[in-house]
Design a protein that fits this description.
two-stranded antiparallel ribbon; three-stranded mixed beta sheet; globular; alpha+beta; binds zinc ion; single chain; 1 helix
Length: 87
Amino acid sequence: MFPSPYNGRNDVFWIVGLSTDIRHATKVLPGARPPGEWVPTLCQRWIRLPFPSLAGRVPTTAAIHEQCSRCGDIAEQQECSGVIWDF
Ligand SMILES: [Zn+2]
């Protein structure tokens, strides 16, 4: 079995989009796109990247642990390693 060329990097980032209260997984590297931009999730939704927390504050999304089960299934199928990410 050869790795798919699509999966050179197999990390997914579990992020909480703007105005949502659940984590979805995305392959978009946090910081690679500006805040407020729409990015696709593994479960084929679109979420907006949140704005960074003020320096020294714990991100409000840090308290959110619920993860989208569809994203979880897909990440598992693709053997992605998940990284919890707060902004
Ligand atoms: Zn999802």
